[in-house]
Amino acid sequence: MDANRFRLMASIFLGPSVRNIVISNATLKSELLLNYAPSLATQCPLIETIEFETPPPNSEPSLAMSQSICAWSNLRSVKCGPVDVYMLHHLRNLPSLHSLGVYTTRTSHWLSSDSIVPFDDLDTLTLDADSGDANVLALERLLGPPPSPSHRRASVRRIVCGPLSRSSIHSFARAVERLCSDSLAEVSISNFSVEDVSIESGTIPPFDALRHLTSFRNLRSMELRYYDDSLAEIGSSSRRPDLPSSFSDLIELTRRLPQIRIIGVHIEIGSAQMSLLDTLESEIPTFGNVEKLWLSWNEEEFEILPSTDAMGALLFRFFPHLSAIVQRNRGWWPEQADEYWEGVCRVVQATRVKKRITIS
């Protein structure tokens, strides 16, 4: 969208009745919006949601954005990129705020400020940074200080964080364990940032680090968004040699977090992997708690995926109570993929019913 069209859009759609501003187009930056709506807070005084799919990857927010955020008192969901201490103090005092998304860099001033602004109660906290270490520091600043008689653990239901390299996952998991209450129900971590920049791997295997999350009795969803070879690089040394690597990662994640009911992971299963699984001599582990899988796969090989019957039979062996399969990557084959995974799920459910009838 060129500047003239954006100016026209701003003049038409921005006004005192507007409650939500959500820009999903990656080419439309927050700076562009503020160029043509410099008095955004005055034009739209009742804003409740302001979210940018691609926030500006800067260390500091623009003065206009900071002033606008600090002028709104009805905010419920904020994801506008970089923040400053003034914005954080204002947002922390808003009783309606339930979702906060922050982009930060290692040089962002608020990370080294003497003023710590902890958030005690959030539904969703989304962290995006230029490094895993910056993400961990942001988490500690936003949910700290550590619990004490005068400071309770932060109540956060969902944490989304990326990038986290192999060397920073351990610090992330320990910080979550130290700072979060048992209200934590969902965790999603990845190795890429808002700009899809992969982070160099370190030395600490994350599956071992995830043991820090086993104490959260309400944690039901765990998503590892590590694609291609990245998941194998960060995997545990206890990976079973008789399983294809992606399936072994899925099994290891499930083993480390036995309370999980929803799992998201990159997985690649073709004819070769199916043949290997069919010839396994060792006992296949079964995870009865898992009810839902969020799967992504190599789109180039979608056309050669096993039949729905074969895939359903395979997944039933590992996850007998599986009731839903959702595709993470909606790329070249969205309709065919929806139909495929729905068929797989029906096979799993039919097999479960058949087994139940046989036993009875």
Which of globular, elongated, flat, extended, rod-shaped describes the shape?
A: globular
Q: Give the tally of β-strands.
A: 11
Assembly classification: single chain
What string, H for helix and E for strand, traces the elements in order?
Answer: HEHHEHEHEEHEHEHEHHEHEHEH
Note the beta-strand portion: 15-25%
The helical percent reads: 25-40%
The unreliable regions are 193-205, 228-244
Order of the strands making up the biggest sheet: 1-2-3-4-5-6-7-8-9-10-11
Distance between the termini: 63 Å
Class by alpha and beta content: alpha/beta
Annotation field: number of helices = 13
Query: Major sheet, described briefly?
Result: 11 strands, parallel
Rounded Rg: 23 Å
Structural features, described:
The chain is of the alpha/beta class and 360 residues long. The protein has a domain of 250 residues. It has 13 helices and 11 strands. It has an 11-stranded parallel sheet with strand order 1-2-3-4-5-6-7-8-9-10-11. Helix 4 packs parallel to helix 5. The longest helix has 26 residues. About 8% of the residues have low confidence. This is F-box domain-containing protein. It comes from Coniophora puteana (strain RWD-64-598).
